[in-house]
Fold this protein.
Amino acid sequence: MTAPALPRWLGAALLLLIATTFASNHVAARVAFDHGANVATAVAVRSSGAALFVLALLRAAKVPLRMARPTLARALGIGALLSVQSLCLYSAVARIPVALALLVFNTFPMMLGLLAWATGTGRPGPRAFVAMALALSGLALALDAFGWSGNTARGARGEMASGVVLAAIAALAFATVLLLTTRWLGDTDGRLRSFVLMIVVASVALVAGKTSGDFAWPRDATGWVALALLTLLYSSAITALFVLLPRLGAVNNAAVMNFEPIAALLLGWVLLDQTMAPLQLLGAGIVVCAIVLLVTARSPK
């Protein structure tokens, strides 16, 4: 049986917590990358760690490791899409400023709403559309996408274009993952669903890294600690997201995840001594207002 839906306020609070955990994961990833690790290594290790973490939960709860063949096939397809999202987003970050990559990626709630509307599985209400647009505008300021604060680094035109395309592909892949998870895997135990998805992502990352010869491990203790934290934080966040997703209602709640880059900015300010310009603080406030608008919006009947 499908689990009952959570209250909107509780769903929004849980998604804010998940978004902050994802942001902490990115801070740990940045430290790991600065100390020798690379994209293929980080994706393979974090996904393998997440799979082991969920496997322990499954064993403790004595949940059978079985899926019906059609459900398993769908889960493998969703896992492949999640692999595309992970590899493309980190590849975008490697090519263009992190702020721009995250800004493009955080268009996924709007893509999700359009995909849901196009497939007849639901549509966001008018206020939800307004909230998504407002959140994106706030992100543009908070992440200094236009360089108005003078803090935005600029790359070569070709690298910028390829990075934006990769981030957009990651956003579309993640929007599709959210939609299909709710539609196809809603009756599957969330822990088992997460286990299968993480196995697929880890396998794809391992194959990609082995094929390209692109594995690089941390070169010192700081890098190893960061890689361990990255794995722990990602495991917790991605498991919570896929366990709770069918109970949250993906379309109108997904934009709350736009808080992730704001949380990353705040954590970077506190933990990495990164400063925020006044326009960035204004953008953060706009995003918070957009989240409030989104939470108070009613789903269309």
Notes: The chain is about 75% helix and 0% strand. The chain has a mean pLDDT of 78. The longest helix spans residues 157-184.
